[in-house]
DNA sequence: CAGTGAGCGAGCTTCCGCTTGACTT
């Protein structure tokens, strides 16, 4: 009986598969990639065919050493990493790192079913070195681009270790999309037109809504039309009923899951992925990082069963969806429940909500089309050839909509409702007709999820990187995700009622944004720089083009080094040129705004180390130039001279309080009110440029209240006091301090609330220590944020999953401490700095062993 | 705790893609 070791990428997958394979098989996981280029060194021998110098990733050393042990004990090794470019490379790296033979068995499967695994075991192949080379080309290209481009930004735009700038094939395009969308919106020319709608009352008091297919471009035209309708007779000229159908959407991929969870549940892409990961680890859903929309036959059969038992057989319509995406690699199934008969996922509320979404979408994908009937009524007007149109929709058979209709949070599909009974020739009674001014809208700003959608459409990035890419561009402060209030505008409306036309002006709010991505000044500057000097890299088609070349490598038609050489020549020359050149034109991120009307000095907006600012005068002037920061949200490229000069109105006196002046300013720690030599920070919602004296007084008084400690009552015979200390506002009772939760202040704190907080704190305290030992008070079993751990003196030791923390004895604890005890190696100090790196990393070829 | 931005230059930073568990009041 031979012993088998199967290596997959994910531990959850390993657990499942082990169950399918029986006793002779041990299934372990590599936890993703095990070797990579070192983090802080180019590690590519450019002179020698771009030879990459890999190392076992530090956090994978243990994985590798454990796998090595198992390899020794096994007769047959099966490399079962994902069936895509990265997966093939992981197998190859495993082979190299574990010292396996070239003929090690490589197996692949696209679904985690017993049958699929057994089939795979029956038809092993060898590692596909061409595919591995395509991955190496991808890796080397990304490293070259990232590690040569980023330093150009440090040199030409801003350097500094905190919030370092960076550029890369994926992130820079993501930023570009956001920047260009913002400019599109900025340049949008709002046009208005007048939309005509009419409401009729039919025999039995029911209402018929209709509209004119065309809009009028001016108020006068709209008025002329309504004028004609004043005395008109309205007749049904035509009634047409057509069957229609709606089909369900395919089951989720990573990207569509992120979009839907964003729209329906308002989750961020990171939140969605974290929840999905939990569902995956607890065995509730299939793998969540996938670009495939197909389901295993087994899953389809199970879905069919579930639909039949829940809704009946006529609701079943199984389908196999095929991806339209060229970049899809389809190593996994679409995202689906592992068991369709399970409707609850356990875990917290949001896990359940996400699971519900996945369940519904997967089930719906295997359900019948909805059958509809659309009725169109054409309404003639006796005084003009124009016609009004009324449309209604009736669901004849709900099909998959049954699953969606159950959901309360589905609002994207507004149903049109039914038309009242009508007949041709019927004369209608006009209740009122309106011509309402409508404004054209610019393209919408990106949300995280719509950005992911766009990137996916362009074939940029992978399911595993969508969420991290967004984190990167936010962390670099190229973009910011936030809400912004809208503006108000007037709109005109003409109303025809009882033969009279009335003109009305209404107000509407427009342009308010929620959780949208906006470019920052830094994002604009870095993007413009890259577009100007490295257009080839931030070109939207760059990834698509290199992907084609990677495919050729994978097909064995092109050598990977040749491909990289071909790319690198021009790219590197360009890097050198831009590095060395004094940039033509003005410094990136600088813009002249005009002349200061009083002093005649030049006014300019620039990007500095601390952000964007406006400067009056030149550094070379006799007297020093004056500076002022731009407000949050103000962009260098769009600030006007007036807005810029307005920034110099700080610090300003807003008024007096208790005979002393209050001064508003902006300091190192943000906007403040200074009064009686004491500073009070403004709140986030206060604009220092417009804040009033009343508000300033309020802030000063609020601060006083917070700082004064006062007793608010007694509890268990001891005083409860509130106050503000080093760590913020607190409640104190029995010599113990409790920090107030965010948003709560001592000022409004009731005795009841204070007692609640004290009891809450006791509860968590009592839950915290799972076990204590009177014999040895230094040893405790503690419930920590990341699970139970053992605290012995100053050391903390994680308690293994298979140990029940509540039943540990003191001896167990000491043993646990002894097992994992002490031999922590001090990290080898990073070598004293190597001689200055030449521009290329040729030197690093010196063997690393 | 309540000012800084240029320039002089050393020394710091960085990519994309695959995975989860390490941080502990």
Automatic annotation (TrEMBL):
HAMAP family: Topoisom_1_prok (MF_00952). Monomer. Keywords: DNA-binding, Isomerase, Magnesium, Metal-binding, Topoisomerase. The keyword rRNA processing does not apply. One of its GO terms (biological process) is DNA topological change. InterPro entries: Topo_IA, Topo_IA_2, Topo_IA_AS, Topo_IA_cen, Topo_IA_cen_sub1, Topo_IA_cen_sub2, Topo_IA_cen_sub3, Topo_IA_core_domain. Belongs to the type IA topoisomerase family. Residues 128-575 form the Topo IA-type catalytic domain. Its EC number is 5.6.2.1. Residues 166-171 are annotated as: Interaction with DNA. Releases the supercoiling and torsional tension of DNA, which is introduced during the DNA replication and transcription, by transiently cleaving and rejoining one strand of the DNA duplex. Introduces a single-strand break via transesterification at a target site in duplex DNA. The scissile phosphodiester is attacked by the catalytic tyrosine of the enzyme, resulting in the formation of a DNA-(5'-phosphotyrosyl)-enzyme intermediate and the expulsion of a 3'-OH DNA strand. The free DNA strand then undergoes passage around the unbroken strand, thus removing DNA supercoils. This is DNA topoisomerase 1. Signal peptide: none annotated. It is an enzyme of class 5 (isomerase). The keyword Oxidoreductase does not apply. The record marks 33, 138-139, 142, 154, 289, 476 as: Interaction with DNA. Residues 3-113 form the Toprim domain. NCBIfam families: topA_bact.
